Each structure stands twice: as structure tokens, then as C-alpha cells.
Amino acid sequence: MSNSHTAVAEKPHVLPDGLFVMVWAALLVLTAITVGGSVFFPGKVGILVAMIVTPIKATLILMYFMHLKYEKKAFTIMFLVAVGILSVFIGLTLFDYLLR
Fold first, then answer.
1. What is the pTM of this model?
2. Which of 10, 69, 84, 93 is the most exposed place for a label (fewest CB within 10 A)?
3. All structural domains of the chain with their residue ranges
4. More confidently predicted of 35 and 64
């Protein structure tokens, strides 16, 4: 009995280890910037630094460690739009909090 739903073999994408090390190093630097911002500039400036750096870190993780960079463009766009909308709502909530 043959299976009518055959899986399409996709060519696997193998990334060099050096790329993962570079992304990891970038994440460490960005984390240091976030921690430094909260330690040396507590309050509104530290929160602003975290709000700017955190989406950059999330993008690196999503694109390289979760291989979103190699997905179909439509899926990537849908995912990034959803994350963008969530970021706007969280940003507006924190902006409202900072104005108090």
C-alpha cells in the first residue's frame, strides 16, 4: 500500500560553528549593554536601553538559533508582524508607565 502523502525532501541547511559563536558573542555583548544600562542608568534610561536592546537579541535568537532565517518568507513575515504588534503593545504599556 503506497502512501499518498509523501514528504518532500528538503535540503538541510548546515551552518558553520563560527556563525553560532559570533551570534553568541553578539548576544553576550548585548546582554552586557542591557545590564550596564540598568546598573549605571537606573530608572527610565535603563528601561529604554532594555527596550531597544531586547528586540535585537530576540531577533538574533529567532533568526539563527531557531532557523527562522531559512523558513519560507511568508511564514517569516507573519511571525515578525505578530512579534512587532506584540512589541508595540508592550512598548505602549511601558511608555504609559514611564509617564507616571
1. 0.65
2. 10
3. 17-98
4. 35
